[in-house]
Automatic annotation (TrEMBL), chain A:
Function: Lyase that catalyzes the C1-decarboxylation of 4-hydroxy-3-methoxy-5-(all-trans-decaprenyl)benzoic acid into 2-methoxy-6-(all-trans-decaprenyl)phenol during ubiquinone biosynthesis.
Gene name of this polypeptide: Coq4
EC category name: lyase
Family: Belongs to the COQ4 family.
Binding site for Zn(2+): H163, D164, H167, E179
Record-level GO cellular component terms: extrinsic component of mitochondrial inner membrane
Primary residence: mitochondrion
Name of the protein in its database record: Ubiquinone biosynthesis protein COQ4 homolog, mitochondrial
Topology relative to the membrane: Peripheral membrane protein
Organism: Mesocricetus auratus (Golden hamster)
Recorded superkingdom: Eukaryota
Coiled-coil regions, chain positions: none
UniProtKB/TrEMBL annotation, chain B:
Organism classification: Eukaryota, Metazoa, Chordata, Craniata, Vertebrata
Organism: Mesocricetus auratus (Golden hamster)
EC number, UniProt record: 2.1.1.201
Protein name: 2-methoxy-6-polyprenyl-1,4-benzoquinol methylase, mitochondrial
Transmembrane spans: none
Function: Methyltransferase required for the conversion of 2-decaprenyl-6-methoxy-1,4-benzoquinol (DDMQH2) to 2-decaprenyl-3-methyl-6-methoxy-1,4-benzoquinol (DMQH2).
Family: Belongs to the class I-like SAM-binding methyltransferase superfamily. MenG/UbiE family.
Molecular functions (GO terms): 2-methoxy-6-polyprenyl-1,4-benzoquinol methyltransferase activity
Catalytic activity: 2-methoxy-6-(all-trans-decaprenyl)benzene-1,4-diol + S-adenosyl-L-methionine = 5-methoxy-2-methyl-3-(all-trans-decaprenyl)benzene-1,4-diol + S-adenosyl-L-homocysteine + H(+)
Pathway membership, UniProt: Cofactor biosynthesis; ubiquinone biosynthesis
Coiled coil: none
C-alpha cells in the first residue's frame, strides 16, 4: 500500500502543476483522450482499482439493489480470471466464434416478436418468459468501464449478458435467493473473484429459513451442475433460440432445479 | 510563479477568451496567421476563441454551460452526502466560517448565487435569527422596571423573527433548487427565503438591490467568470459586500501532493461508489485545478470594480474566502 502511494507520488515531482495552457496531472486517470481502449473506458490506477473494489464490495453488501456496484467489483477484481476465461473461449470452437463475432444481447439486437413466436419450451421462449415474469430487461446491464483490455472488456460484458440466460437455464428467479444460487454456479464455472465473493457473502442478507434451504439443497445442486457443465460462456445462445430448453439442459448436464425455490422469498 | 506573459495567458483562459476578438495585446496571435487579412484573422480568432475548459477537456463555450448543467443535474440528489464524504465533513466548517465572516445583522438582504441546495442560505437564516434574538434580549435588559405583562407583550408582538432579513437563493439548475426547497421544508425554514432560477452571468435582478452577494463553490463552474463578477457588482448596493468561497491553490508542496493524490485517486472512486457517477466527480476535481489561484482571482475581482479585496485561506489553501466591497 505504501509502495503504491510512493509510486504514485514519485512522477509528480517532475511536473509543475501550474502551466497555463497544458495541464497534465500525472496520476489523473484520463477519462478522455488517446488512452481510451473502448467507448466508455475509464483508465484507472491500481490504487483506484483497489479502492473501487473495496468500496463497491461494501456498497453491494449494504445495498444489494446496487447492481452497478456488483458490476464494478467484477471489473476491478477479475483481470487475471478474465484472461483465463478468454483463453478458454479461444480453445473452444463455439467460444472462438463468439470472440470473433462479438454478439450482444440487448433489446435492440433481439427480435422479440420472433422469440415470442417460438414454441413453448424452447430457449428463446423461456428466456422471454423469464424477462417478462421477473420484469427485467437485458438493457439494464451497465457497460464495462474499468477493464484495461478491450477483448477482456467484451468477455465480461458477455458474461453479464449471459447471466440472464443462466437464470433461465437454472430456472432461478431474480430474488436474492435465486441470485445467490446463480452466483454459486457462476463461481464454480468462471472462478471470477466477484462471483466467489458474492456467493460467500451474499447469504448474509438472507433470512434464516432461506439459509437452511440454501445450504442443504440449493448450493450442493449448483456446485454439482457447475462442475458438470462445460463453460457456459462458450455457448452461442443467439444461434440456439429454437433449441428446446430440456435438450440444452441435457447437453450441459444441468439437472432440473429443486421445486422448493418457487415458493420462497 | 509563472512569467508575466504566461500569467497573462492564464488570465486569458480564465476569462473564457471573451476579449480575444478585439484585443490585440498578445503578439503571439499576430504571428500565427501572418498572411490572413485583418477581417479574416478576426473571424478565425473569434472561432478559436469560443473555446474554454471543462475540467481538463476543451469544449466550446456553448457546450460548457450544458455540460455543467448535466453534471449538477445528476449529482443533485446525492450532493450533500457526497460533500460530507469528500471533505470528511469539513465543508460545514468552511461554510460556517463564511457566515461568521459575513456577520450579517438582522435586516440584511442576501443574494446567494449558485446556492442550489441552500447550505449558505440556511446558515444565514439561523445566524440572523440568533442575532435578532440577542438584540431583543439586549433591548429588554436596558429597559428597566418592566412588568411581566409588558415583557410578555414585547415577545408576543414580535412578527418577524428574522428582523426583515431575506435571502434569495439563485441557481441555474432546477434539480439543485428542488433539493434545496425540500431541505428547507425538512429543516423548518419557512420565512425569509426566495428561490430564483437564474444565470450568474445574467442575473434576473435590478441594480443596487442586495447588501451581500455570496457564491459558494459555484463560480468555478461559470463559463465567463468576469461576467459573473460584473453582475455581482451590478446587483449589490453601494457599500455592499461580495463574498466568494471557493477551492483554491495549496502552496505547501507536501500538502499539495497529498491533496492531489486524494483528489484524483479517491474522490472519483467515492463518487462512483456512493453516487454511481465517476465522471461528474472527475470533472469536479479537474475544475478545481483549472480555477485561478488566490492572487489572480483577487485581481479579477478588482477588475470587476470591487474595492478592498482581500482573501483568507482556509485549511492551508484548499479553500479560500475572497471578499470585496462595492464602494
Amino acid at each position: 500500500m505504501v509502495t503504491l502511494l510512493l509510486r504514485s507520488l514519485r512522477p509528480h515531482r517532475s511536473l509543475p502543476l501550474r502551466l497555463p495552457l497544458v495541464v497534465d496531472v500525472p496520476f489523473r486517470a484520463g477519462s478522455h483522450g488517446p488512452r481510451l481502449l473502448y467507448p466508455g473506458h475509464i483508465p484507472t490506477t491500481s490504487l483506484q482499482k483497489m479502492l473501487l473494489a473495496a468500496g463497491s464490495a461494501g456498497m453491494a453488501l449494504y445495498n444489494p439493489y446496487r447492481h452497478d456496484m456488483v458490476a464494478v467489483l467484477g471489473e476491478t477484481t477479475g483481470y487475471c480470471t478474465l484472461k483465463f476465461l478468454r483463453d478458454q473461449m479461444k480453445k473452444d470452437p463455439e467460444g472462438a466464434q463468439i470472440l470473433q463475432e462479438r454478439p450482444r444481447i440487448s433489446l435492440s439486437t433481439l427480435d422479440l416478436s420472433k422469440l415470442r413466436s417460438l414454441p413453448e419450451g424452447s430457449l428463446g421462449r423461456e428466456y422471454l418468459r423469464f424477462l417478462d415474469v421477473n420484469r427485467v430487461s437485458p438493457d439494464t446491464r451497465a457497460p464495462t468501464r474499468f477493464v484495461d483490455d478491450e477483448e477482456l472488456a467484451y468477455v465480461i460484458q458477455r458474461y453479464r449478458e449471459v447471466h440472464d440466460m443462466l437464470h433461465t437455464l437454472l430456472g432461478m428467479p431474480t430474488n436474492m435467493l435465486g441470485e445467490i444460487v446463480v452466483k454459486w454456479f457462476e463461481a464454480v464455472q468462471t472462478a471470477l473473484p466477484m462471483c466467489i465473493l458474492g456467493a460467500l457473502f451474499g447469504p448474509i442478507r438472507l433470512r434464516a429459513q432461506n439459509l437452511q434451504v440454501l445450504f442443504s439443497e440449493l448450493i450442493p445442486w449448483a456446485i454439482q451442475n457447475g462442475r458438470r457443465a462445460p463453460c457456459v460462456l462458450n455457448l452461442y445462445y443467439e444461434r440456439r433460440w429454437e433449441q428446446s430448453l430440456t435438450a440444452l439442459r441435457d447437453e450441459l448436464g444441468i439437472s432440473p432445479p429443486p421445486k422448493h425455490i418457487q415458493g420462497l422469498a | 510563479m509563472a512569467a508575466p506573459r504566461s500569467c497573462g495567458l492564464w488570465r486569458y483562459c480564465c476569462r473564457g477568451w471573451s476579449r480575444a476578438a478585439g484585443d490585440c495585446r498578445l503578439p503571439g496571435f499576430h504571428r500565427s496567421w501572418p498572411g490572413a487579412t485583418p477581417s479574416a484573422r478576426l473571424l478565425s480568432q473569434e472561432k478559436r476563441a469560443a473555446e474554454t475548459h471543462f475540467g481538463f477537456e476543451t469544449v466550446s463555450e456553448e457546450e460548457k454551460g450544458g455540460k455543467v448543467y448535466q453534471v449538477f443535474e445528476s449529482v443533485a440528489r446525492k450532493y450533500d452526502v457526497m460533500n460530507d464524504m469528500m471533505s470528511l465533513g469539513i465543508h460545514r466548517a468552511w461554510k460556517d466560517l463564511l457566515i461568521r465572516k459575513m456577520h450579517p445583522l438582522p435586516g440584511t438582504q442576501l443574494l446567494d448565487v449558485a446556492g442550489g441546495t441552500g447550505d449558505i442560505a440556511f446558515r444565514f437564516l439561523s445566524y440572523v435569527q440568533a442575532q435578532h434574538q440577542r438584540k431583543q434580549r439586549r433591548q429588554l435588559r436596558t429597559q428597566q422596571n418592566l412588568s411581566w405583562e409588558e415583557i410578555a407583550k414585547k415577545y408576543q408582538n414580535e412578527e418577524d423573527p428574522l428582523g426583515g432579513s431575506l435571502v434569495t437563493v439563485c441557481d441555474i439548475n432546477r434539480e439543485m433548487l428542488k433539493v434545496g426547497k425540500q431541505k428547507a421544508l425538512d429543516q423548518g425554514h419557512t420565512a425569509g427565503l426566495a428561490w430564483v432560477l437564474g444565470d450568474a452571468e445574467e442575473l434576473p435582478f435590478d441594480d443596487n438591490q442586495f447588501d451581500v452577494y455570496t457564491i459558494a463553490f459555484g463560480i468555478r463552474n461559470v463559463t465567463h467568470i468576469d461576467r459573473a463578477l460584473q453582475e455581482a457588482h451590478r446587483v449589490l448596493k453601494p457599500g455592499g459586500r461580495f463574498l466568494c468561497l471557493e477551492f483554491s491553490q495549496v502552496n505547501d508542496p507536501l500538502i499539495s501532493r497529498l491533496y492531489d493524490l486524494y483528489s484524483f485517486q479517491v474522490i472519483p472512486v467515492i463518487g462512483e461508489v456512493i453516487a454511481g457517477d465517476w465522471k461528474s466527480y472527475q470533472y469536479l476535481v479537474e475544475s478545481i485545478r483549472k480555477f485561478p489561484n488566490q492572487e489572480e482571482f483577487k485581481e479579477m475581482i478588482e477588475d470587476a470594480g470591487f474595492q478592498k479585496v482581500t482573501f483568507e485561506n482556509l485549511t492551508t489553501g484548499i479553500v479560500a474566502i475572497h471578499s470585496g466591497f462595492k464602494l
